[in-house]
């Protein structure tokens, strides 16, 4: 999962990024409405966490822009403006949820999972290829019925490859899925993650092929 965090308080943003990363979520952080509008045009994000009091305006004004770009994009508003009137205004502007500061990060993660489960986003929850099963809702992988031990970035790469199984996934798309805007990407780091995935999937009836100059393709073993 990859989310856009629109938050101008750097300490808050750092804490949220650290917490969400522990839940295998890639976080792209921006501080203003201007940069958020630019980021949302990429279509890369599965959800948005949005502050209201931003340097260049009220975060609620961004919601119509987000809805034009991705109609069903889940949006959670976080704000110190937490009265009933403020919460109602946020929901009336189109937010899927509204959480007042201060808040529990565990509650935020739970609410993020909840909005991602809503009917507009329902999809096949489990994909099976050979002996590999990937649960898209709980976001974990099993091999022959046993949990597959993956690092966060291995899990993110495998999720995208599984979602697009049988098709070549461009290298750039994998890097966007695995790394956030602020991550430094070594030239061979993606290849290292794929190499470890291949080893962990050995004997699973699943193959990951490198397509020279393009990217990678995951499919059932021939």
Task: Quickly describe the structure.
The protein has 222 residues and is an alpha/beta fold.
Question: Structural class, judged by helices and strands?
Answer: alpha/beta
- Number of beta-strand segments: 14
Name the CATH class of the largest domain.
Alpha Beta
Query: What is the CATH homologous superfamily assignment of the largest domain?
Result: Response regulator
Shape: elongated
**End-to-end C-alpha gap:** 30 Å
Strand order of the largest sheet: 2-1-3-6-7
Q: Care to describe what's here?
A:
By secondary structure, this protein is an alpha/beta fold. The chain folds into 2 domains: 120 residues, Rossmann fold (3-Layer(aba) Sandwich), CATH 3.40.50.2300; 95 residues, Orthogonal Bundle (Arc Repressor Mutant, subunit A), CATH 1.10.10. Helices cover 36% and strands 26% of the residues. The protein has a 5-stranded parallel sheet, sandwiched between helices. Helix 6 crosses helix 7 and helix 6 crosses helix 8. The longest helix has 13 residues. It is elongated. The chain starts with a strand and ends with a strand. The model has no long low-confidence stretch (mean pLDDT 88).
Notable features of this structure?
Rossmann fold, Arc Repressor Mutant, subunit A, four-stranded antiparallel β-sheet, 14 strands
């Amino acid at each position: 999962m990859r989310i856009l965090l629109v938050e101008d308080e750097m300490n808050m943003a750092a804490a949220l990024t650290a917490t969400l990363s522990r839940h295998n979520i890639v976080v792209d952080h921006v501080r203003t409405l201007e940069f958020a509008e630019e980021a949302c045009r990429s279509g890369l994000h599965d959800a948005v966490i949005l502050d209201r009091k931003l340097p260049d305006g009220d975060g609620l004004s961004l919601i119509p822009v987000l809805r034009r770009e991705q109609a069903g994009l889940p949006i959670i508003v976080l704000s110190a403006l937490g009265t009933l009137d403020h919460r109602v205004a946020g929901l009336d502007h189109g937010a899927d949820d509204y959480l007042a500061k201060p808040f529990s990060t565990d509650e935020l993660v739970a609410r993020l999972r909840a909005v991602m489960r809503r009917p507009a986003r329902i999809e096949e929850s489990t994909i099976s290829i050979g002996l590999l099963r990937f649960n898209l809702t709980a976001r974990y992988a099993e091999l022959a019925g046993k949990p597959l031990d993956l690092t966060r970035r291995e899990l993110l790469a495998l999720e995208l490859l599984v979602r697009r199984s049988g098709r070549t996934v461009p290298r750039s798309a994998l890097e966007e899925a695995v790394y956030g805007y602020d991550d430094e990407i070594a030239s061979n780091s993606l290849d290292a993650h794929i190499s470890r995935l291949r080893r962990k999937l050995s004997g699973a009836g699943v193959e990951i092929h490198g397509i020279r100059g393009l990217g990678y393709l995951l499919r059932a073993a021939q």
